[in-house]
Amino acid sequence: MTSVDVGQVAFHTWTKVCDKVRRAVVFVDDACAESLHWNGGLMRLVNAGALNVKEFSSFECAEPSEKKAVFIVSTPLRDVTETIIRDIIQNSQFQYVVVITTQGPLVHLFAKHGSYEGDEQYVFQSFEEKVLEWMGNMNYTAEVLHVPVCTVSVCPSLFVTPGLPRLFPLLPTDVTGVEAIYNSSKARVGDKKSFESLAEIETHHLPKHLQLKVKMLAATLNDVFEELHLQDDPYSVGPFSRLVATELANYPGARHRRKTSQSRASIVCIDRSLDLAGAVSHQGETLLDRILTLLPRLPGHNNDVMVSMADICSAQPVTSDAEEVLAPGCTAHADSSCRNVLATKKHKEALMEVNRQLVEAASSEHLPLSLSGRPGRVTVEQLHSHVKLFKGHPEAIQKHSGLLQVAMATIQAMQKESGSNMEGLLGLEKMLLQSLGDEECVSGLSQVIQVWEREMKKETDQSCRLYTIEDILLLLVYVYSLVGEDAAESEDEERKMMSLLAEAILSSKEEDIPAALTEFVGDPVTANGVTKAIEQVFEKLRSLGACRDDLKQFRTVYNSGSLTSQASHVPVLKQVLQEIFNPAKPDLLDIEHKSSGLKDLLKSGFGLFMNVSKPRPSNSPLLILFIIGGVTASEVKLIKDTVTSYKTGTQVIVGSTKLLKPSDVLDMMFSNPLLES
Q1: pLDDT tens, 96-145?
Q2: Is the pLDDT of residue 402 over 80?
Q3: 655: Cβ–Cβ under 8 A, 6 or more apart, which residues?
Q4: What kind of architecture, by CATH, is found in domain 151-275+571-677?
Q5: Do 6-149 and 151-275+571-677 show the same overall fold?
Q6: What's the pLDDT tens digit per position in 333-356?
Q7: pLDDT tops 70 at residue 489
Q8: Helix or strand or coil: residue 634?
Q9: 29-33: long-range contacts (C-beta < 8 A, 24 or more apart)?
Q10: Could you read off the pLDDT of 627-658 as tens digits, one per residue?
Q11: Which of 94, 327, 341, 429 has its CA at a distance of 20 to 30 angstroms from the CA of residue 112?
Q12: Contacts (Cβ under 8 Å, ≥6 apart) of 28
């Protein structure tokens, strides 16, 4: 089997969209706009003949002379999406409308009826009729198409699905909520359920809107396999991933592909919640981690950042506000080689590679290059001086724009003042890591309390403090994810930390309260609201260790060390790969296989009575690790390094719902009510 390139598949899929946009006004929602951003950008639609590209909003419309529209959306054609399409059409004078959705007919059937049963063709035909009614003439033309422009290839070894950026596994604290919602929807007492843990919850027990998200993710993964022409072999680690893997294995639309595809791939879905220590850590082994953490995100995007390009522009902003006039750069470009280095190499290696490419580019343009400094060592100042060589050379800037934007992102991330705060937090994490297993040391929570008490003694001006409320919350997530309730010695310690956090929030300005807590705290901020919010935060923190209670092999992510070795964090992702590629091929107790056909089912069944090997993810030439809830660039590097150490012939690709920075975890844990529609 030849090497699989998800990026080429994603790029090719947009060609089907480009075939439809000639002489059209195009309306794109945020998720599809992000996918387009990584697959050719706005100019790809313009070069294909689009007249204009606009935001997917009820406040937008077309000029009277513009008669054709193309809508590109990432959701089923119902509810808010349907309303926006109707509003735009009725406020315009279209005669030809094409609606492109990344969701197929089966997802639409479930969204409407709560099951996959029904006429798949009629789903889109009925919406075409609605579009014709909104245009006011049944003789006009309407088309509704399913085109899966639902993936983004960040680099050859990593893809993300921008359509579900806030999908996060349920926590043990959500069990009672699922039970209450499920039972309230059942009229008969005999239908009611009582759940003891997340492991007992099936997809049909979830609220319908969350069921739909599970189905949408399974359908998106199915679309990836469809485009790659591969049979899929689904596995899962964790209760929420089990639901997604089960849906993928039983997906009706996959039957034909599984019969006709010659090549096979394994996909292991993994719950992000099983190990949040790596996600909130400021270890930042890669430059891409640092860039994502320190630079502001592009508006409406979850996987790319804004890069100031003022240093190579002739039009210099005279004020900070004027800098907005200059369009920001980004890291998404056709040549992913430099971005791949940022994601998979250590800081020093990545800096050297970016500098090497800059030197080659400057030399090819005959710019006055002056090489200085020690061989084998590259400083940010050197990098900056090489970038500035391009100023005043517009043709050279245009030719090497992708490299220059990545280089500027690297420079700005390394120069950020808040970077020193990252080093300080990393130091605290290392201290906590070593002391958690030392019986002579105070508890992890007690150490966090000491840090915050020192900060609270400083002036009330937030700028005088080294650490923020958000930083302390990240440290708490780090400790509780590592050791669970063992993070605290007593309830009194927790109450003290809760009191300190409440005091800090009540004395803070509104803009200094972490965004992840604003929904919890409410508006206006009151003592009662803050107290309730902090109580909910600690309920979720205590549940982090319990996320692994149903596992057998991966129950712990903390190694307390010994006389000859230091304590360490043992990531779940690394443990999973070690079990998969272990030459001894031990039983995979926590990596659950989901049979996708009778042949697999019989093989698994006969394995109970005969000497038949059970299915393993390593049996396929391609392995996809899909982390539900986000992944960091450092974890992508960890996966690459771990697989390389086994010298296996298996190609491993990482997939996820988004690229994470530490604050994203707080947002998804504390201000992401998955059980509410």
Answers
A1: 999 999 999 999 999 999 999 988 889 999 999 999 999 999 999 999 99
A2: yes
A3: 6, 158, 159, 160, 161, 221, 224, 267, 624, 625, 626, 627
A4: 3-Layer(aba) Sandwich (3.40)
A5: yes
A6: 887 788 888 998 888 899 999 999
A7: yes
A8: helix
A9: 29/56, 29/72, 29/73, 29/74, 29/75, 29/81, 30/56, 30/300, 30/301, 31/74, 31/102, 31/150, 31/162, 31/163, 31/165, 32/72, 32/73, 32/74, 32/102, 32/149, 32/162, 33/300
A10: 999 999 999 999 999 999 998 889 999 999 99
A11: 94
A12: 36, 53, 54, 55, 56, 72, 73
Q: What CATH number should be reported for the domain whose range is 6-149?
A: 3.40.50.2060
Return the structure tokens found at 625: 């690790």
Q: Domain map of the chain by residue range?
A: 6-149, 151-275+571-677, 296-415, 419-546
> In terms of Cα–Cα distance, which of 493, 472, 368 is closest to 429?
472
Contact 614, 607 (CB under 8 A): yes
Check if the beta carbon of residue 35 is closer than 8 Å to that of residue 45.
no
Taking the C-alpha atoms of residue 666 and residue 502, their distance in angstroms, rounded to an integer, is 17
Residue 584: exposed, middle, or buried by beta-carbon count in 10 A (0-12, 13-18, 19+)?
A: exposed
Residue with tokens 């490299």: 403
Is 462's pLDDT higher than 70?
no
pLDDT attached to residue 562: 82
Q: Which pLDDT score is estimated for 407?
A: 94
Tokens encoding 223: 């679309």
β 230-237/592-593 pair status: antiparallel
pLDDT surpasses 80 at 623: yes
